[in-house]
Amino acid sequence: MTDTKLNLIAGTWIAGDSAIENRNPSDLTEVIGLFTQASSDQLTETLERARVAQAEWAAYGMERKQAVLMAIGNELMARAEELGTLLSREEGKPLAEGRGEVFRAGQFFTYYAAECLRQLGENADSVRPGVEIDVRREPVGTVAIISPWNFPTATASWKIAPALCYGNAVVWKPANLTPASAVALAEIIDRQDIPKGLFSLVMGSGGTIGQQLVESPMVDAISFTGSVPVGKGIASAAIQNLTRVQMEMGSKNALAVMDDADLDLAVSLALGGAFGGSGQKCTASSRLVVHAGIHDAFVEKLVAGAQAMKVGHALEDGVQMGPVVNQQQLDENLAYADLGREEGAELACGGARLNMPHEGFYMSPGVFLNTTNDMRINREEMFAPLTSVIKVDSYDEALSVVNDTNFGLTSGIVTQNLARATDFRRNARTGVVTVNLPTAGTDYHVPFGGRGDSSYGPREQGRTAAEFYTVVKTAYISAGTPV
Ligand code: NDP
């Protein structure tokens, strides 16, 4: 019998009310483990302890904090193969992607380790003679972190690392679909020189323990990544306590391919952007807006490329696309494949259930042709290995289609024309814009986030993260003697 993995509550690993089983989406016969579910009382206990631990941590000193974050980052990077394998087993992304994600998670910690030492404030003269002003940033307090399953280690790390860097306590509720990666990261953090209860892991369902967490007046800030409906619910709960929120949600990213694009580059960017992570990326290229002048040649190579992709077990050599994460996601994806056809699109390839030697949630990468931007398949986030080609007659039309969405996380253009690239960079209404690069894949030292329904609140990552994880204090200082 597998041991049940525990939660980290007020600095102690303990069992909760019940447990859930986690299975490998590449091979449903493989049980990855059993994972405890936090009780309501345990959440209260860990939030109470977090407040005390945060004050201890804030007094640690910058070099001691820096050493903690550096050690976490170094261990993640050193164990990228092992922890990436675990991640790929429970989430289903190919091993190269799982390994890369864990390594990137390590880089978030080493980046914020360096930020621990960059304690820059502002100093100014007052309008009153003899008075000086000191503007500094202080920790917010206790931060609730709620993360999704599609990047279980990286997303959590780009929140936990700055939260700790800027002196906060963390209560982390990971997605219940990827608890093994969460426990592995929590074990690394717990082994460091940190106050007892500074960092907590509360596995449990979103609707129960997640909801209690976001409604708690003991939480000072909530950083959430997930779907739009859940994000809106969290914002409503947070406003009752005037808790600050930062939310990264879905998107419907477009890659515009111009008639002057390098054809092979455009096809490779589209394939990687649409089908990497089985399309389960908030930055996925799910709309391919293609100029009529290159459309037919592009489509021919795109469909051939999608058909040639090797789909299989996430840990198998040479696999380019693993399964999707669970039965519900698979059912929704297949329903979208049907919906696209009903709306009049041509499903040129894929979009179908695949039978493999291992029973898992496999489907073939699908390409819709002859689509229009008003179809539901082009307006709703599918989170599926499905992409749509939208044919346009000009650059101006392409830009207008790219911007015609409720979302606004990323967009990209493939072109060799500097004027078009510059115009796109300035006028695409997304938080991230790329030129001759994929819509997915960003750096860790610069801001990340979107517009419209994709994001709410201050940006994540880079030095910008300080805006969310700190509060600003303005001090006025006088020498106390008349001047
Ligand atoms: P969900 O919104 O379903 O869940 C996200 C997290 O919220 C999970 O930990 C979930 O817990 C939790 N949760 C669910 N209900 C509540 C609640 N009422 N109160 C508090 N927490 C709750 O999203 P998915 O996990 O399905 O992730 C996929 C979505 O995330 C996609 O829409 C995708 O676009 C988006 N995403 C956005 C990114 C970005 O940066 N913009 C990056 C990655 C993903 P549990 O699952 O255990 O129920």
Structure, explained:
This protein has 483 residues and is an alpha/beta fold. The chain has helices spanning 40-58, 62-78, 80-91, 95-116, 152-165, 179-190, 206-215, 228-240, 263-275, 292-308, 327-342, 395-403, 418-427, 466-469, and strands at residues 4-5, 7-9, 12-14, 18-24, 27-37, 122-125, 131-139, 142-146, 169-173, 199-201, 221-225, 244-248, 253-257, 285-291, 346-349, 366-369, 386-392, 410-414, 432-435, 455-456, 470-478. The protein has two domains: 4-249 and 445-474, Aldehyde Dehydrogenase, Chain A, domain 1 (3-Layer(aba) Sandwich), CATH 3.40.605; 253-435, Aldehyde Dehydrogenase, Chain A, domain 2 (3-Layer(aba) Sandwich). It has 14 helices and 21 strands. The strands form five sheets. A seven-stranded mixed beta sheet has the order 15-16-17-14-13-18-19, with helices on both faces. Strands 10-9-8-11-12-20 form a six-stranded mixed beta sheet, sandwiched between helices. It has a three-stranded mixed beta sheet with strand order 1-5-4, covered by helices on one side. Helix 5 (152-165) links the parallel strand 8 (142-146) and strand 9. The structure holds NADPH dihydro-nicotinamide-adenine-dinucleotide phosphate. NADPH dihydro-nicotinamide-adenine-dinucleotide phosphate (NDP) binds at residues 146-151, 155, 173, 175-177, 205-207, 210-211, 214, 225-227, 230, 233-234, 248-250, 282, 381, 383, 409, 454.
Q: What does the secondary structure layout of this molecule look like, with pairings?
A:
Elements: E1 4-5, E2 7-9, E3 12-14, E4 18-24, E5 27-37, H1 40-58, H2 62-78, H3 80-91, H4 95-116, E6 122-125, E7 131-139, E8 142-146, H5 152-165, E9 169-173, H6 179-190, E10 199-201, H7 206-215, E11 221-225, H8 228-240, E12 244-248, E13 253-257, H9 263-275, E14 285-291, H10 292-308, H11 327-342, E15 346-349, E16 366-369, E17 386-392, H12 395-403, E18 410-414, H13 418-427, E19 432-435, E20 455-456, H14 466-469, E21 470-478
Parallel strand pairs: 1-5, 8-9, 8-11, 9-10, 11-12, 13-14, 13-18, 14-17, 16-17, 18-19
Antiparallel strand pairs: 2-3, 4-5, 6-7, 7-21, 12-20, 15-16
The structure holds NADPH dihydro-nicotinamide-adenine-dinucleotide phosphate.
